[in-house]
Design a protein that fits this description.
With 172 residues, the protein is mainly alpha-helical. It has helices spanning 19-22, 25-44, 51-63, 68-75, 79-91, 113-133, 139-153; strands at 66-67, 95-99, 107-111.
Length: 172
């Protein structure tokens, strides 16, 4: 049975993929995700960052200062894990906790000046990695992939991250 294709598009090349896996969405999602995760870890390592750190930094950069709770809700990360991530970033001088102007029980987390510089450098490296990683897709395919992945992300439950990730030298 030949692979499906859309009108005007060549059929998908599945020669390197066993037929039994060509329709398995989990397998098709997992393999690129695994490779992506490894490459992102390698790109972020010189900055002393892990992917969860970058998620927090990107959110603070785009959304401004947030409480830990708000960050956890936006990123779908449980509160305990969020504390570990923020503690690690604070120890590295990338974020700082400050007083909340309206709720004295809450603290606002924001990027420090050095955190903003580290974030900008990491973004440049990740932009280059993303361009290379997605180079086999057209611009419209990239946009469609982003749309579909966003839709999937919006329906995932809160995630826990092992505290082992935050020990010196641990590889996620």
């Amino acid at each position: 049975m030949p692979p499906e294709s859309h009108a005007g598009e060549p059929p998908i090349n599945t020669q390197a993929l066993p037929r039994g896996l060509a329709r398995r969405m989990g397998y098709l999602l997992n393999r690129p995700a695994h490779l992506w995760r490894e490459r992102v870890q390698d790109v972020l390592a010189p900055f002393g960052l892990l992917p969860p750190h970058f998620g927090v930094m990107a959110t603070l950069d785009s959304e401004g200062p947030q409480t830990q709770r708000a960050l956890g809700e936006l990123l779908r990360v449980d509160p305990t894990t969020m504390v570990w991530i923020i503690d690690h970033l604070e120890k590295a001088g990338i974020v700082r906790r400050g007083k909340h102007p309206k709720d004295r029980r809450a603290h606002l987390v924001e990027l420090s000046a050095s955190g903003k510089g580290t974030f900008r450098k990491a973004v440049k490296c990740l932009d280059q990695l993303e361009a290379e990683f997605l180079s086999h897709l057209t611009k419209s395919e990239c946009e469609e992939l982003r749309r579909l992945l966003t839709k999937l992300f919006q329906n995932i439950p809160t995630q826990k991250v092992s505290p082992k990730l935050f020990h010196r030298g641990a590889k996620p």
